[in-house]
Amino acid sequence: MANKKILQDKNSYGKPRPWRQKKLENLRYAEYLSILLYKKAHKVQGCADVLRFRKLPDGSTKLYQTWFCKSRLCPLCNWRRSLKNSSQLTKILAEAHRQHSTARFIFLTLTEENSVDGVDLKRRLKVLTHAFFKLVHYKKVSKNLLGFVRSTEITTNANGSYHQHLHVLLFVKSAYFKGTGNYLSQADWTNLWQKALKSSYKPIVNVEAVRVNKSKGKSSLLASAQETAKYQVKSADYMT
Ligand SMILES: [Zn+2]
User: How far away, in angstroms, is 87 Cα from ligand 1 center?
Assistant: First the structure.
């Protein structure tokens, strides 16, 4: 093996892809599964064990054969899934922008109080989804809304509670930014979200208009697409 060259898989920016780190996390996950006597431990352990790449005419390499375990919490599979989701979403957003060139994207983060435990989390996620559908059907929102992408993110806190929240990319008519009858401020969004959630407190809402064109490096549309399409559960959160 001494004179064998180690292959490096790089992304389009020339940055090495984190195969090694993800495989190490995957092996740790497989080990936990085996300690907990889960049958799928063996299957997870074999995830992306062998990678076959093809060399393209331009000198770059492309993955063309491997096997993924597709386990819901596999760090390797989640990483690949997020790459796929964000690349598909980026294409969809570019097409939406082409069809409605004057329409704008808005990145919205909707939060609520933490869930105390897993049982509470399950119930609250249902409420969250329901509240979201109420929100987008409010006249003030729906009249300028062309479409949206929603993703749920769950992070864990040190005390074992969960922080569930929604990342939403809204696609709105340009009229949204014209006049007080159309535009919704952060306070307006907060009030609407509180109404949809039927909460007694003011939930934290973040709203940002997204720039489509590149300014410095990555466009903020691409960044928002990636934020919306990223893993729903970060492996660092449940691997401890
Ligand atoms: Zn896997």
Answer: 19
Q: Do 75 and 29 form a contact (C-beta atoms < 8 A)?
A: yes
Q: In what order do the strands lie in the sheet with 104-111?
A: 145-156, 162-172, 104-111, 205-210
CB 170 within 8 A of CB 110: no
Ligand 1 centroid to 130 CA: how many Å? 31
Backbone angles phi, psi at 169, to 5 degrees: -105, 115
Ligand 1 centroid distance, CA of 160 (Å)? 26
Angstrom distance (rounded) from CA 170 to CA 158: 32
> Residue 155 C-alpha to ligand 1 middle, in angstroms?
21
What is the 31 CA–ligand 1 centroid distance (Å)? 13
Cα(231) to centroid(ligand 1), Å: 14
Domains and CATH numbers, the chain: 19-71 (no CATH), 80-238 (3.30.70.1910)
pLDDT in tens, the chain (240 residues): 566 778 888 887 788 889 999 999 999 999 999 999 989 999 999 999 999 999 889 877 888 999 999 998 899 998 898 888 878 888 888 888 889 989 998 989 999 999 888 888 899 999 999 999 999 999 999 999 999 988 888 888 888 888 999 989 899 999 999 988 899 999 999 999 999 999 999 999 999 888 766 555 556 666 676 667 664 445 555 555
C-alpha 40 – ligand 1 centre gap (Å):
11
